[in-house]
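Researcher: Structure for this, please.
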Amino acid sequence: MIPELNGLSYSDRLKALKLWTLEERRIRADLIEVHKMLNGLSDVSFRSMFTPDSSKRTRGQSYKLIKSRFNTNLRQHFFSERVIKFWNSLEDSIVSAPSLNCFKQRLGQQRHLLQMGLPSDVRRPQRPSQLVRPRPVSYPVSIRK
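Model: Predicted structure, token format:
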């Protein structure tokens, strides 16, 4: 560990080292994967995972995705659902990057776009001592005779 950062909180250490939070890195990796699918650099088909928005809107970028409706909360955590909000918030200059490296570079320059959709507690990580652990769930036990 770096001695100068020893007394700093996690969020302050990230700022001092100019590093991304874990959630930002996950979102970045998801967006890179979508860009690979869109440009045929992945084995997974883009059309099998996403539905492109075919309406000709004048705002935003040209590769918007349609967010499907679902009845359970389970589906909202799937890759194909959780990435849509962040993908649609990207600027056209980022999405239409000619290469993967160019996409990564432009995404890094527009880091604030990734933070827009994050909850406030994810944007500002807490100290580990302030995190609350969930209590274990106890289920009623039925005894058969």
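Researcher: Any notable elements?
Model: The first helix runs from residue 10 to 17. The two ends are 59 Å apart (CA to CA).
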